[in-house]
Write a structure and sequence with these properties.
The protein is of the alpha+beta class. Helix content is about 30%, strand content about 20%. The radius of gyration is 17 Å and the shape is globular.
Length: about 200
């Protein structure tokens, strides 16, 4: 369990959701020694039928279908999603797709694949925005998360704290994440990072 995880200070955190996200991160790191995180947002185009008529239930269904499709790819090993609502974007989802860093270090292909699947399944009404590293950001999403690198773990905790912000939830308490399989007993014993909280 991670006490006092790093968070983006300008947001108010939903501590239940934050603890759930950090538990998910802990489980992913315990299972996979190297991960790449692909952060993206899912929404509908403003002039679309879905934008005007979507509900949390209809968006949830489409997100579940998207994640099931993405899980068919061998490098995709997990995901975590939250739903929000704003006047500008309506109902939308912030997500992280976990990629096995031993299979790929290049999330671009998976971002393109997720975008194509989302566009197809929403009949052109959906839009996927990939959240990439920018100079103005304190943390860098492109840094691989390694089980024995405390800085990389702290980096991803900070980035994913955005999913736990109270702002824009509008009473929604919807999150959806993958099951994390047990780590195989075969293989070398791991020494955890000194401090990743």
């Amino acid at each position: 369990m991670t006490l006092n995880p790093p968070v983006i200070p300008r947001y108010t955190m939903d501590w239940y959701l934050l603890s759930h996200i950090n538990h998910h991160i802990d489980m992913m790191i315990n299972r996979y020694s190297c991960l790449c995180a692909l952060r993206f947002d899912l929404c509908y185009r403003r002039d679309s039928y879905r934008y005007k008529n979507s509900t949390p239930r209809s968006l949830e269904y489409e997100v579940r279908v998207l994640m099931a499709e993405m899980e068919k790819l061998s490098a995709v090993v997990g995901y975590f999603c939250v739903m929000e609502w704003t006047e500008d974007h309506g109902f939308h989802v912030h997500a992280v797709l976990w990629l096995d860093g031993h299979i790929t270090q290049k999330p671009f292909f998976y971002a393109e694949k997720a975008s194509a699947v989302w566009l197809d399944m929403t009949q052109g009404e959906g839009y996927l925005y990939r959240c990439e590293e920018k100079d103005c950001y304190v943390a860098d999403i492109s840094i691989p998360v390694k089980y024995n690198d405390a800085k990389s773990i702290k980096n991803i905790r900070y980035i994913l704290s955005y999913l736990a912000k109270v702002e824009q939830k509008e009473g929604l308490c919807w999150h959806y994440c993958s099951e994390v399989p047990e780590r195989p007993s075969a293989g070398r014993h791991r020494r955890p990072a000194a401090s990743s909280g």
